[in-house]
User: Which sequence fits this backbone?
């Protein structure tokens, strides 16, 4: 008897799910909820209506700090606007609340949410919203279909706790999502979430522009690339550099960090990873189960996770989609900067940097040896220095500054055709010796990261590396001698970097 | 043939007091992106009878004349049932359009009721969706340019730009029928805008609401690559007849 009811319910669910496509996965959950007599339903809302605090990324609204279910009013405005997708590249985004991803919404399980969707009069398109945290057909989409210059209202009860994606679901839905129409809504459990020192909001999305990656000017949406699932950009928070440099998210050593990470899609699944950190906890798929000690977590398009970890070692941690070409060639890079004292017992920094003699190392080592011998004899030529420097550069510097000296825009400054280098060569020597922390402008772009001191390099090695760099990739040329480096090193020892 | 068309046109022009220019469209077989037959995913061509289409969208100047002659359509006199609060809201007074806008630019912020009344006033009516789609499938040299990716891209480029500046005057390049501004300037009302998801036999269509959200739109669109047309249908289907928006105007048709 019971089985029949359940199976007929399942069949109905299946039909509805078939019709609604992939966008309403909660319908299936709704069936389970019904069996438990609507768990999560705390009855009618209590107290005065509350206006939800909405935040733009990477900020997260404060905890609701409520021990009862209330009526919460959410007012979200849709704005179509031009913004930078990359330096010098403009794109017309369609946004929930003026940002990509859209405003973060935070409510409590059992809350009755009165949702107002306003479509700005300057919009060309009608829009609506499908919240994956809504139990009901279309997740609110059908009830929120709104023409430009109009407003819709619908109300839902947040029955299930968790982190949920919301997105526009107006036809053609793929295009609305590709233009940035997604965000996250957090439904807190009744007891709230454990306190942490920082909460951040990061959301990945793939973008399809008519021009190539970083092609300057106004770029329009390329429908064919979108259908073929060949993105031009894969980004965190809607723009290259949205979370690097000055805009990096930050924490101090010893602090706990919770990041709500969503994936708006429209097409790609994210292999989310933080280089150099292990997630202590991941609520994978945004569900209630917690997985511990995770390196890389999979976030489906139209899905989200909550990751938590404690910052233990200072430095810049790079958030990437570990489908790694997306990070290096499509922009899927963000930075978490951790400040504070080092703990050498957890991470030592580089303790050894020696040449390793593989089969192919012969010629390179030969160049270094030749330079050392020539210098001893007093016959060191520019050529000797450049060749030795090239071998050393490949082993030490190219990891960040890249073998072609181009660096990684927004993260590691370029050495190629570098105005910063050309302006002051002795400053460059100082940087290799003592490292560099903080803001610099290189070729018109600002960088704000950390280069550690290269304490393992000897004076002649530094001289050769710098000489190689000065004579490569369109730099002005010139030479740095062992003597120059020695002088800088001793002057640094005499006068510690207080002048910095 | 051409001379005949010109003659018909001349007659039409004389009939109209406003002397708006109409161009003749020949009858033809046409495949709409919306299913016209019993199987929604299979294209069923329909015969479109000949008709005459206004060469350009109705301009601000023309609409000013209309409300001058028909006070019941002034924004302070129009019943709320026939036009929402945004109706002509940017005019500086009831008979004075926004001075920043050219009188040659298309009138926008007009409701379907007002558009319909205007067309009646010059002995015409609003086009049906099929008529509009038929006319708008043409480009400068072809009657049906829809399969050309370059044509699609050109149209999409306008759809994605938000409306920031004043809308330009009418008079873009003429399409092969001699009509202009079907793309790239404004959205246009059609007579049957609120029936766009329902074919002759609505029983074959499932739930018309489905088109409004999710990938469900894929169920009822014959040509899924036709994003440009799909977006126009989405816009029209989001409206009620009294609604107005800042990029929505209209043009009229007459039987040929």
Assistant:
């Amino acid at each position: 008897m019971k089985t029949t009811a359940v199976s007929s319910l399942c069949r109905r669910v299946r039909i509805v799910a078939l019709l609604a496509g992939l966008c309403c996965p909660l319908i299936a959950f709704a069936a389970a909820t019904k069996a438990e007599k609507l768990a999560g339903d705390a009855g009618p809302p209590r107290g005065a209506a509350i206006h939800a605090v909405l935040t733009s990324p990477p900020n997260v609204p404060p905890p609701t700090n409520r021990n009862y279910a209330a009526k919460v009013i959410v007012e979200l405005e849709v704005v179509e606007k031009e913004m930078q997708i990359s330096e010098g590249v403009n794109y017309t985004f369609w946004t929930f609340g003026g940002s990509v991803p859209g405003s973060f919404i935070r409510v409590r399980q059992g809350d009755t949410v009165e949702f107002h969707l306003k479509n700005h009069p300057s919009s060309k398109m009608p829009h609506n919203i499908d919240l994956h945290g809504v139990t009901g057909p279309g997740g609110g989409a059908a009830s929120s279909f709104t023409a430009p210059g109009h407003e819709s209202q619908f109300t839902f009860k947040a029955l299930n706790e968790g982190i949920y994606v919301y997105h526009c679901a107006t036809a053609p839905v793929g295009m609305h999502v590709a233009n940035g129409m997604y965000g996250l809504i957090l439904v807190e459990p009744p007891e709230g979430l454990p306190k942490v020192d920082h909460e951040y909001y990061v959301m990945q999305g793939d973008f399809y522009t008519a021009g190539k990656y970083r092609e300057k000017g106004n770029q329009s949406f390329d429908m064919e690339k979108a259908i073929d699932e060949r993105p031009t950009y894969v980004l965190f928070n809607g723009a290259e550099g949205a979370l690097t440099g000055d805009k990096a998210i930050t924490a101090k050593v010893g602090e706990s960090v919770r990041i709500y990470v969503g994936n708006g899609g429209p097409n790609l699944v994210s292999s989310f990873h933080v280089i150099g950190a292990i997630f202590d906890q991941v609520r994978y798929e945004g569900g209630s189960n917690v997985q511990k000690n995770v390196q890389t977590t999979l976030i489906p398009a139209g899905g989200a996770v909550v990751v938590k970890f404690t910052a233990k070692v200072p430095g810049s941690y790079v958030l990437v989609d570990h489908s790694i070409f997306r990070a290096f060639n499509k922009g899927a890079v963000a930075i978490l900067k951790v400040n504070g004292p080092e703990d050498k017992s957890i991470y030592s920094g580089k303790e050894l940097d020696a040449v390793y003699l593989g089969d192919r190392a012969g010629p390179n080592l030969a160049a270094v040896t030749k330079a050392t011998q020539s210098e001893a004899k007093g016959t060191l030529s520019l050529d000797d220095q450049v060749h030795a420097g090239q071998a050393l550069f490949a082993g030490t510097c190219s990891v960040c500054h890249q073998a072609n000296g181009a660096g990684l825009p927004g993260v590691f400054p370029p050495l190629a055709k570098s105005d910063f280098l050309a302006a002051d060569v002795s400053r460059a020597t100082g940087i290799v010796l003592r490292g560099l922390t903080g803001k610099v402008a290189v070729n018109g772009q600002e960088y704000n990261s950390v280069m550690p001191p290269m304490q393992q390099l000897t004076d002649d090695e530094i001289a050769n590396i710098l000489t190689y760099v000065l004579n490569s990739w369109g730099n002005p040329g010139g030479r740095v001698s062992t003597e120059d480096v020695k002088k800088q090193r001793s002057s640094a020892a005499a006068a510690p970097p207080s002048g910095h | 043939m051409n001379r005949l068309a010109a003659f018909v046109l001349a007659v039409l022009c004389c009939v109209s007091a406003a002397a708006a220019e109409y161009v003749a469209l020949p009858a033809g077989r046409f495949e709409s992106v919306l299913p016209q037959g019993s199987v929604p995913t299979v294209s069923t061509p329909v015969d479109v009878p000949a008709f005459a289409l206004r060469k350009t969208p109705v301009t601000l100047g023309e609409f000013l004349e209309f409300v001058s002659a028909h006070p019941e359509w002034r924004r302070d006199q129009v019943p709320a049932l026939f036009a929402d609060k945004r109706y002509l809201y940017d005019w500086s007074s009831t008979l004075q359009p926004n001075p920043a806008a050219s009188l040659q630019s298309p009138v926008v912020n007009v409701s379907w009721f007002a558009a319909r009344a205007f067309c009646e006033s010059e002995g015409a009516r609003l086009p049906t969706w099929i008529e509009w789609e038929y006319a708008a499938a043409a480009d400068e040299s072809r009657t049906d340019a829809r399969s050309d990716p370059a044509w699609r891209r050109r149209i999409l480029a306008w759809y994605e730009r938000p409306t920031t500046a004043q809308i330009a005057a009418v008079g873009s390049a003429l399409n092969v029928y001699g009509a202009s501004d079907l793309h790239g300037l404004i959205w246009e009302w059609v007579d049957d805008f609120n029936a766009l998801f329902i074919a002759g036999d609505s029983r074959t269509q499932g739930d018309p609401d489905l088109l409004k959200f999710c990938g469900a739109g894929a169920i009822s669109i014959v040509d899924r690559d036709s994003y440009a047309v799909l977006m126009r249908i989405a816009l029209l289907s989001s409206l009620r007849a009294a609604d107005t928006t800042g990029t929505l105007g209209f043009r009229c048709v007459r039987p040929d």
In short: The longest helix of chain A spans residues 2-20. Chain A is about 25% helix and 30% strand. The two ends of chain A are 80 Å apart (CA to CA). The first strand of chain A starts at residue 46 and ends at 51.
